[in-house]
Amino acid sequence: MLVTNIETIFRDKDISDKWERATEQLHEEFGISPSEVRLLSAIKVLFVNYVDENKFSEKAAIALYYRLVFFSMLKAIKTYKTTDVKFTGFKLTDLMPVFAASKQLAREAKDWETLELAIISINETIDALLLD
After folding, report:
1. SS3 content of the chain, % helix, strand, coil (to 5)
2. Distance between CA atoms of 12 and 72, rounded to whole angstroms?
3. Could you give the CA distance from residue 31 to residue 11 in angstroms, rounded to a whole number?
4. DSSP 57
5. Domain segments of the chain as ranges
6. Cβ count near 118 (within 10 Å)
7. Cα-based torsion angle of the residue sequence 87, 89, 121, 6 in order, rounded to the nearest 10 degrees
8. Which of 29, 59, 80, 119 has its CA 20 to 30 A from that of 104?
9. How many whole angstroms separate alpha carbon 73 and alpha carbon 123?
10. Which H or E run includes 126?
11. Pairwise CA distance, residues 18 & 46, whole Å
């Protein structure tokens, strides 16, 4: 079931706890707070749907969150670059450690194969954006 209504997103305490842990860990590790993340509402919807559908472990959920944050920030940087608008905030070099941490967490998760299969289209889009 695809969840798109923000009010219904955190009815599941397990998913809510995983979201909170992921946002806290990103802030602790990289100093990136949710207010600095582009497209946070879309990330919430994707996170909830992926975690709910695949029953990801906490480690896989955090890896997913990091990957979604990296993807959204990368997309914002690329969009601003093509429109000649100055992007304030993060540079790609600032965000590469988030991507690396996401991949490391994914490798450590017991359900890493499920995660990587579920987000194959996100990974392919990230690869294409990085090559651009």
Report:
1. 75, 0, 25
2. 24
3. 28
4. -
5. 12-131
6. 19
7. -110
8. 80
9. 14
10. helix 120-131
11. 13
- Going by the DSSP 8-state scheme, the letter that residue 12 receives in this structure is S
**Model-wide pTM > 0.85:** yes
- Cα gap 5→112, rounded to integer Å: 28
Q: Is the dihedral of CA 35, 36, 37, 38 positive or negative?
A: positive
DSSP, res 86? P
Q: How far apart are CA 67 and CA 24, in angstroms?
A: 15
Token pair, residue 92, equals: 């790609």
Given pLDDT bands bounded at 50, 70 and 90, which one contains residue 131?
confident
Of 13, 27, 91, 12, the residue nearest 65 (C-alpha): 27
95-108 exposure pattern, b = at least 16 Cβ within 10 A, e = fewer: beebbebbbebbee
Residue the block writes with tokens 């990368």: 74
Tokens of 101: 């941490």
Averaged pLDDT for residues 14-18: 92
